[in-house]
Design goal:
By secondary structure, the chain is mainly alpha-helical. It has 13 helices and three strands, in the order αααααααβββαααααα. The chain is elongated, with a radius of gyration of 24 Å.
Length: 311
């Protein structure tokens, strides 16, 4: 079995041109994986591993190995690459790592997005009794539930909102593109409340600048992107969130939470207004816990990994 690993390492070195440091990392992790498979608790060969063995490996590294999730992510990336090679060159029928998303190869940038708990903590810290509070709450909830760009949110007008259908129209998206974005029922409730309290016609900005006492600074004073960033930063600090939070953070957060909920990348791409899925992957951050869920779902439906699970 060591011959297979040596052949794999040779492939990475001679055919892929990997750096020596990267080669050493792959070799170390391959040996670690094989030692785990050969242990009395598992007693498996490299070519006989199953998705359940990957789950056991994650648990072993988290609990007994006491290593950080970012380290496990790198290890899973190597294992995924190893089995992809085995499938391509050794005619491996069942790829136990087929259910691991490719994005697990990118260590999760935890500072770029908020957890669900942090999002609710932020929203719950805002007092919505005042118009300013309700405005800020609606803004942050809308950013989280739609993934809008800051410029797209600031450009929204009353005519762009359809409360009956629970959606909005982005008329000035990136590249001048227009798209329709739906938001959840809970968002509709707060949007309706905010809609009733604000004044204006169909061409009035949905979000506008307010003075400290909750009145307009000037008629139709559209909220600027810099002021939007100030609102998000201020509200995050008040909620006790130590991460650096900006409107873009919620775009990352939206994409990540949607992906974790099982929404396919193609649909997330459409909602975010991207032309290519490659651009969308920048906004999605996969954690080890999410990888575990992918494997569990994979195991629960054997049809998904017939013939290796690769399409």
């Amino acid at each position: 079995m060591n011959d297979i690993v040596n052949e794999y390492i040779g492939y990475l070195e001679n055919m892929c041109g990997f750096a020596k440091r990267t080669i050493k990392q792959h070799l170390r992790i391959c040996k670690l994986w094989m030692e785990f498979l050969n242990s009395s608790a598992v007693n498996k060969k490299l070519l006989n591993a199953t998705p359940m063995d990957l789950l056991a490996f994650i648990t072993f590294r988290q609990e007994k190995g006491r290593v950080k999730n970012v380290t496990i992510s790198k290890e899973l990336c190597v294992i995924r690459t190893l089995y992809a090679w085995l499938q391509d060159f050794k005619a491996l029928e069942l790829n136990p790592a087929a259910s691991l998303p490719e994005l697990i190869c990118e260590p999760p940038a935890e500072k770029k997005y908020l957890t669900i708990k942090e999002c609710f903590l932020l929203l719950e810290s805002i007092n919505t009794d005042s118009l300013i509070g309700l405005r800020d709450y609606t803004i942050i909830a809308l950013l989280w539930s739609t993934g809008l760009r800051s410029g797209e949110l600031c450009a929204l007008e009353r005519r762009d909102i359809d409360l009956r259908e629970g959606c909005l129209i982005v008329r000035k998206g990136k590249g001048g593109k227009q798209r329709q974005v739906f938001f959840p029922d809970k968002m509709t409730e707060f949007m309706t409340r905010y809609w009733i309290l604000i004044q204006g016609d169909q061409d009035t900005p949905l979000f506008y600048a307010l003075s400290i006492n909750g009145t307009r600074k000037q008629k139709h004073a559209r909220l600027s992107r810099s002021r939007l960033a100030d609102i998000v930063r201020l509200r995050s600090n008040e909620a006790g969130i130590t991460k650096k939070v900006s409107p873009l953070t919620f775009r990352h957060t939206f994409a990540t939470h949607m992906y974790e909920a099982g929404v396919v990348m193609r649909d997330i791409k459409e909602i975010l207004g991207h032309d290519d899925e490659t651009e969308t992957t920048i906004y999605v951050h996969i954690s080890v816990d999410t990888a575990r869920k992918f494997i569990e779902d994979h195991v629960a439906n054997p049809v998904k990994y017939i013939h290796g699970g690769r399409k």
